[in-house]
Specification:
Domain RNase H type-1: 1-68
Strand order of the largest sheet: 1-2
InterPro entries: RNaseH-like_sf (IPR012337), RNaseH_domain (IPR002156), RNaseH_sf (IPR036397)
Helix content: 25-40%
Radius of gyration: 17 Å
Number of strands: 2
GO molecular function, one term: RNA-DNA hybrid ribonuclease activity
CATH superfamily of the domain at 1-66: Ribonuclease H-like superfamily/Ribonuclease H
Distance between the termini: 34 Å
CATH architecture of the domain at 1-66: 2-Layer Sandwich
Protein name: RNase H type-1 domain-containing protein
Shape: extended
Length: 99
Amino acid sequence: VALHLGVKSINIFGDSQLVVNQVMGIYQCKNEELQKYKHYVDSLLTLFTHYSIQTIPRSTNKFADTMACLASQIPASPTDSDIFVLVQQLFAPSYSVPD
């Protein structure tokens, strides 16, 4: 999405310290299947002029945790390449918002 929007500088946050450290080259990625993902990520990162990758604790990243949970519940379909999910933040309880 960021590339399609023309983003050149990006901050990336991950909740897996292992994966973040593998992408940053601190740890080696030994699993052959995961190495394919690592190479793909490396090729994508070259398309940005600047990027940073940081680990954040899962406990403080409720949004990402919710999205990961939602994504794991949606059945994969080879014909549906794009699935859009509307996320709306409510600033007042639903019962107090006028119709």
